Amino acid sequence: MLSYQHIFHAGNHADLLKHSVLLQVLNSLNKKDKPYTFFDTHSGSGFYDLTDSRSIKTGEAQKGISRFFENQNNQNDNCKNTSNIPEAFKAYIDFVKPYIEKLCYPGSPEIERRLMRKNDVLILSELHHTEFENLRANMKTPVFKNEAEPAIQVHNRNGWEMLKALTPPQTKRGAVLIDPSYEEKEDYSLAAQTIIAVHKKWSNGIIMLWYPLLAHREGEIEAMLDQICESARALNQNIEIADLRLEVFDKSLHKEVSLQEFRESNGKNPPRLYGSGMLVLNAPWKLQEETQKTIEFINSAF
After folding, report:
1. How far apart are CA 140 and CA 79, in angstroms?
2. What is the pLDDT averaged over residues 243-254?
3. Could you give the CA distance from residue 78 to residue 88 in angstroms, rounded to a whole number?
4. How confident is the model over 226-239, as pLDDT tens digits?
5. Predicted pLDDT of residue 69
6. Taking all residues of the chain, what is their mean pLDDT, rounded to a whole number?
7. Mean pLDDT confidence for 83-112
8. Which residue has the higher pLDDT, 70 or 191?
9. What is the maximum alpha-carbon separation in the chain?
10. What is the per-residue pLDDT across 145-187, written as a single tens digit (0 to 9) for each?
11. Residue 159 to residues 32, 57, 75, 86, 199: CA-CA distances in angstroms?
C-alpha cells in the first residue's frame, strides 16, 4: 500500500521522540571531523506545511509540537518551561523553532540535510510518487540554507531494498533511520529481516528504528524487537542497544480505529497510537540517559 502521507501526522508526539533522538545521533556523528553516510529509508516529503488542510484536520501538530510554544495561534514565542527543559530536547526545540515560526515542520530528511556537512553523504528513499516529487523539490529548494550542504541522493525506491543494496557504504562510518508507516502487517517482519541483514554486513553503523505502540499489534512489535536484539547480541554481546518508549496515552484505555475513521472524526475518535518507540543499535554515549529525560519532560506536557 502507498496511501500513507505523513502530512496528517507531522509534528505529533511520535515526531517529538523520533526527531529528538535523530538530532542527538547526528550531533554525535558531527563530533568527529571524519565524514559519514546517512540513510533514510522512508523519507516522506521532508518538509510539511502545518496550514495544510490535512494537518489541520487531524490537529496532531497542535497536540504535539505546539504544546511546547506559548502562543499556539502565532507559534512564534519562546518555548515553555525553558528552565527545566532537558538539554537534548532543548536542542530539538531550538532547531524546530524557525520552522514553526513559518508555520511548517521539518521532517527527518530536512533535519539531516541541515545538520550534515560538506563531505558527508545523505541517501534518501521514498516510494510514494507524490511524496518523492515533494521530497526532491524540497531538497533542491530548501527554506533554510546549509552552507556546508552534504551530497544528497534521492531515490524513488523501496526503502528496504535500497538499504540492503547500498550497505555497507563506501564511507563505513554512519547511520540509518528506518521509519516505515506500518500500514502493512509485513512491515514488522520486513524491519526485523532488513535490520538483521544490514547489521551483519555493517556492524558499526548506527541503526535507528522507529516503531508505533499499538495495542492490537503488541505481539508483532515485541517479536520484531526481540529478533533484532538477539541477532545483534549474537554478533557482539557488548553492543549498546537503546530501546526508548514514549507512552502519552493509557494503553488500557486505547481504542484502535481505522485511519479513515480517525481522519473523519474531527478529534472525536481516540489517537491511533498510545505512543511510540525508538530502537537504536550502536547507540551513542548517553543517548538512553538523555532521551529518558526527554520522555519524562514530554509526558509532563500531556
Report:
1. 30
2. 80
3. 17
4. 999 999 999 999 99
5. 77
6. 86
7. 92
8. 191
9. 51
10. 888 899 999 999 999 999 999 999 999 999 999 999 888 889 9
11. 28, 28, 34, 33, 16
pLDDT classification of 8: cutoffs 50, 70, 90: low
The per-residue pLDDT for range 206-232, each reduced to its tens digit, is 999 999 998 888 999 999 999 999 999
Contact yes or no for 78/70 (Cβ under 8 A): yes
Cα gap 244→277, rounded to integer Å: 5
Rounded average pLDDT over 139-150: 89
Own/partner contacts of 287-290, CB < 8 Å, gap of 24 or more, are: 287/21, 287/24, 287/25, 287/28, 287/242, 288/242, 288/244, 290/24, 290/86, 290/87, 290/88
Backbone angles phi, psi at 268, to 5 degrees: -80, -30
CB of 122 closer than 8 Å to CB of 40? yes
Q: Supply 101's cell numbers.
A: 515560526
3-state secondary structure the chain: CCCCCHHHCCCCHHHHHHHHHHHHHHHHHCCCCCCCEEEECCCCCCEEECCCHHHHHHCHHHHCHHHHECCCCCCCCCECCCCCCCHHHHHHHHHHHHHHHCCEEECHHHHHHHHCCCCCEEEEECCCHHHHHHHHHHHHCCCCCCCCCCEEEEECCCHHHHHHHHCCCCCCCEEEEECCCCCCCHHHHHHHHHHHHHHHHCCCCEEEEEEEECHHHHHHHHHHHHHHHHHHHHHCCCCCEEEEEEECCCHHHCCCCCHHHHHHCCCCCCCCCCEEEEEEECCCCCHHHHHHHHHHHHHHHC
d(CA 196, CA 226) in angstroms, rounded, equals: 11
Q: How far apart are CA 1 and CA 69, in angstroms?
A: 35
The angle, 0 to 180 degrees and rounded to 10, between the axes of the packed helices 13-29 and 287-301 is 150
- Cell 515553555 maps to which residue? 80
Amino acid making up residue 201 = K
